[in-house]
Design a protein that fits this description.
The complex is a heterodimer of chains A (625) and B (194). Chain A is an alpha/beta fold and 625 residues long. Chain A has 21 helices and 23 strands. In chain A, β15, α16 and β16 form a beta-alpha-beta unit. Chain B has one domain: 3-Layer(aba) Sandwich (Pyruvate-ferredoxin Oxidoreductase, domain 3). The radius of gyration of chain B is 16 Å and the shape is globular. The chains are: A alpha/beta (625), B alpha/beta (194).
């Protein structure tokens, strides 16, 4: 049985923040879950997917976040409790349905989980999703611990049903990927079958309806404000004339800081879990009973601005500070030491911070080689990039490389260096159009298979219709590899229990109106190069579908082991380093031992026997025996 | 009770995250409040993997600079790189087997001399223990259990209020059945080697 389905109420278990969210949803009787995967939210979906195999829960990997939210909204207006999870930038994609779904609301609970990534551990920006609560006028909950992640997910469903509005649950990398103890509550048997009751004066947002519904939304927001003022998720802790207001993971840093600085009895702590709408009654009591207030929130000064506005409205002049050059920054994730320092400085507490050791003391700094992530040994993307670089060199042509979001963004690094522009999912295709039109240069864009389904198709239709000329290489490795091998509509190699039809990328590309289409396995370098040569020479828009499975995924699904391995022959004893200078497979390394017999070595643990390197250098050969 | 902060640093593929989970579960098994966290966006692709386990009366799952009680380093260069997490009171336990960064493999940079790195570390902290976790793991049956050999060394140091049995119990309960014996052997070898 899936561990999150255990009926052992009252048991305490160690869960990942994302697992706690799933358990909270199950304890609320969730019946319908959708997602588009993205770090740090992906484990939510992975657990739902596994749970569907043992329960009545419906779960899907949708093609993108907009589709995921609309699908979940459809279920929720039909009376089924639903959840939709995504990473923070995914909410941008889903923002269109979000803004108007807020007008029409839902009939059964709908919780939208958005996972922020302060410090950008695995994202292209660190936008603050709390803006979306204000933008859409929807309630938002912000858990501060793994236990709260579970409790607040369950509570979010209750609030959603009481207000008939979707509720946003905001997590962050540090919470989603934290492990903490959680006490389990009872599971609720979900209602899995719904009914759509027609009500066009509510659900069909022609302007006359939208005008009425906007007013309904604002009325509900007022109600939400009362609820947040009375909610147990918001509270005033401690006593004293100093005030600290906080929400989300910052709360745990504040708590530790107050203990470390022995500030108990001097500080009132406004802890917000139901953080939007701001609980005005509670916040006013807090402002009135303190003499100076520090707001501890990661990223944007939203709580700070809210408290300042509230104070101004009520003629209060209590100093309120948060984001200031000498206090907190709008940049990056906080950490306990930082919060402790700022709290001590702001309230003038005497304190000596711990001293990190300096290992360079008394010696010249040792240059430390960096360790960036790299495309894996045997990754077919490397073969595609190598083929592109070789053909461009041979044709003495320079190209611009718009790329996209996935493992293949790692083509950025030397020696491949096949990434020049990336801003968001799907941008490779559309930005290629703009760059080629503006410059007239050769433009080769790269997009992954899952990303193509997510938001590459519209850009391709646009490119056909507006007669843009560039080469689009779809790197089809048969899975959403970067986020942990989730399936997508084009998969053929599928996880156990998967029985969904496959949508052909090639057929879509042709149906978009692209005439110049090649389907190649990039592991065959000769064929891949021929396809690239043809496409670069072509005066038309061309698409190359470079199709070869992700070897990690293949191994995971099929349990297959490498059938062969490769070694360098004894003639590899010159100063030629072409293989690492142009191809850069991590299994190939340069021997540093001066007594080594060969210049290069192939690491037999890393080599998966893809055989691309033997097509590059004739000193490499299959390993015997 | 006191608080204990363990910082784990390694390279994608070394099993640091499983070690993190086992350590956290063992701490709970021993009856302590425990939080852990991990950053693994690019872990599978040979990047640096960092994680934390905090035991005792503490809420934040992050360890700020100078605040680690123990640094468990799965790779010498990454142990050295993570030293900013340590204070002079810290204990460092490090694997001594390098995993070559790509820039070194292609000859663009040099891997620093490991004994120099360890000497510099030893000068700054309360204690440095090093071990060849890979050799111990191979002796136990598979190189993949090097992460558990590291936990054996951690258990032996007795810095954390977690008895050896709590680790063994957790390994029995949380590791897939067919790998339990090998991992228990690796744990024991790590325990006795250090």
């Amino acid at each position: 049985m899936h561990p999150l389905l255990t009926e052992e109420t009252g048991k305490t278990v160690l869960l990942l923040g994302n697992e706690a969210i799933v358990r909270g949803a199950l304890e609320a009787g969730v019946a319908f879950a959708t997602t588009y995967p993205g770090t740090p939210s992906s484990e939510i979906a992975e657990n739902f997917f596994r749970i569907t195999q043992e329960s009545e829960l419906y779960f899907e990997y949708s093609t993108n976040e907009k589709v995921a939210l609309e699908t979940a909204a459809g279920a929720a207006v039909s009376g089924i409790r639903s959840i939709c999870s995504m990473k923070h930038v995914g909410l941008n994609v889903a923002a269109d349905p979000l803004m108007t779904l807020a007008y029409v609301g839902v009939r059964s609970g709908l919780v939208i989980v958005t996972a922020d990534d302060p410090s950008m551990f695995s994202s292209q920006n660190e936008q603050d999703s709390r803006y979306y609560a204000r933008f859409s006028s929807l309630p938002m909950l912000e858990p501060s611990s793994v236990q709260e992640a579970k409790e607040m997910t369950r509570e979010a469903f209750r609030i959603s049903e009481e207000l008939e509005l979707p509720v946003l649950l905001r997590t962050s990398t540090r919470l989603s990927h934290a492990r903490g103890t959680v006490t389990l509550g009872p599971l609720v048997v979900p209602q899995t079958h719904g009914r759509f009751e027609k009500e066009s004066s509510r659900f069909v947002t022609v302007p006359s309806v939208a005008r009425t519904r906007h007013k309904v939304l604002l009325d509900q927001t007022e109600k939400a404000k009362e609820m947040s003022s009375q909610s147990d998720l918001n509270r005033l802790d401690g006593t004293g004339s100093y005030g600290i207001a906080t929400s989300g993971m910052a709360y745990s840093y504040v708590q530790d800081a107050l203990k470390d600085l022995n500030m108990e009895g001097r500080v009132q702590l406004l802890k917000l879990g139901f953080s939007f709408p701001l609980p005005e009654t509670l916040a006013l009591e807090f402002i009135r009973s303190t003499q100076k207030i520090l707001v501890v929130e990661e990223l944007e000064p939203l709580l700070e601005d809210g408290l300042k506005a509230l104070a101004q409205t009520h003629g209060l002049t209590t100093p309120i500070a948060g984001k200031r050059p000498d206090l907190f920054s709008r940049l990056y994730e906080f950490h306990p030491g930082l919060v402790r320092d700022v709290v001590a400085r702001f309230f003038d507490i005497d304190y000596t911070p711990p001293q990190p050791v300096d290992v360079t003391e008394g010696t010249d700094p040792i240059p430390l080689p960096i360790r960036p992530p790299n495309l894996c040994a045997g990754c077919p993307h490397r073969a595609s990039y190598y083929a592109v670089n070789s053909v461009l060199a041979e044709m003495e042509t320079e190209a611009v490389f718009p790329t996209d979001i996935g493992c293949y963004t790692l083509g950025l690094l030397p020696p491949l260096q096949t990434a020049d522009f990336v801003i968001c999912m799907g941008s490779s295709v559309s930005s290629a159009a703009g760059i080629s039109k503006a410059t007239g240069k050769t433009v080769i864009a790269f997009v992954g298979d899952s990303t193509f389904f997510h938001s590459g198709i519209t850009g391709l239709v646009n490119a056909v219709h507006n007669q843009h000329r560039f080469v689009l290489i779809i790197l089809d490795n048969g899975t959403t590899a970067m986020t942990g091998h989730q399936p997508h509509p084009g998969v053929s190699l599928t996880p156990k229990g998967w029985d969904k039809p496959t949508v052909s990328i090639e057929a879509i590309v042709r149906a978009c109106g692209v005439d110049d289409v090649a389907v190649v396995n990039p592991i065959n370098l000769g064929k891949m190069k021929a396809a690239v040569r043809q496409a670069v020479s072509s005066k038309a828009l061309s698409v190359i579908l470079a199709k070869a499975p992700c070897p990690l995924y293949e191994r995971r699904i099929l349990g297959s082991k490498p059938k062969r391995k490769f070694v360098v022959g004894p003639e590899c004893n010159t100063d030629c380093t072409m293989c690492v200078d142009s191809f850069g497979c991590p299994a190939l390394y340069r021997n540093t031992d001066p007594d080594a017999e060969t210049t290069m070595t192939i690491d037999q643990h890393l080599c998966i026997g893809c055989g691309v390197c033997i097509q590059i250098c004739n000193k490499i050969r299959p390993k015997k025996g | 009770m006191a608080e204990y902060r363990v910082y784990l640093a390694g390279v994608g593929g070394q099993g640091t995250l499983l070690a993190t989970k086992i350590l956290a579960e063992a701490a709970i098994q021993a009856g302590h409040h425990t939080v852990a966290s991990e950053v693994h966006g690019m872990a599978q692709r040979g990047g640096i993997v960092e994680s934390t386990v905090l035991v005792g009366d503490v809420g934040s799952p992050i360890i700020s600079n100078g605040e680690a009680d123990v640094l468990l380093g799965f790779e010498p260069l990454e142990t050295y790189r993570a030293m900013v997490k340590c204070s002079k009171d810290s204990v460092v336990i490090s694997n001594n087997v390098p995993v070559m960064p790509f820039s070194v493999a292609i000859g663009k940079s040099r891997y620093p001399d490991i004994s120099t790195l360890f000497d510099l570390i030893r000068k700054q902290v309360r204690q440095l223990n090093t071990l060849n976790a890979q050799a111990l793991a191979i002796e136990a049956g598979t190189a993949l259990s090097a992460n558990i050999a590291m936990l054996g060394a951690l258990a032996r140091s007795q810095i954390l209020p977690i008895p050896k049995e709590a680790f063994q119990e957790t390994i029995r309960n949380k590791i897939r059945e067919q790998f339990v014996d090998t991992n228990l052997a690796a744990f024991e070898l790590g325990y006795t080697a250090s």
